[in-house]
Description:
The protein is mostly helical. The chain contains eight helices and no strands. The chain folds into two domains: 1-51; 61-162, no CATH class.
Amino acid sequence: xxxxxxxxxxxxxxxxxxxxxxxxxxxxxxxxxxxxxxxxxxxxxxxxxxxxxxxxxxxxxxxxxxxxxxxxxxxxxxxxxxxxxxxxxxxxxxxxxxxxxxxxxxxxxxxxxxxxxxxxxxxxxxxxxxxxxxxxxxxxxxxxxxxxxxxxxxxxxxxxxx
Length: 162
């Protein structure tokens, strides 16, 4: 329900801005509509591909299969495996909680679970092409590199603190 309300508010704001442009400058409105529709078409193809990949991952990878794979690792290998696996898994972060619970119940280290959840949120391998297109290659690489380093530090700290 919250997503619907947010979507409606964004739609209302967008339509309002187009109405303002309609009264101020029709030429700018025409340019904005052209550019907006072109960006919409380009991004919708990428977003569709991302959703297809997410659907495939969600249907073919159960929490047990992901959990059993990750339970094979510990120490720094566990942190790296958790980070890479979390970065590949793309879905709302709440869907990662059952997997994390399964991992903890079956003896995974805190650092592995922390790295898995943090990378799920902070690194998006599946959506990297969309990020590069919108934010630039340099920014995307720097952000993901800093996120990767941060995740390893967070995982090590979580292991020490908990």
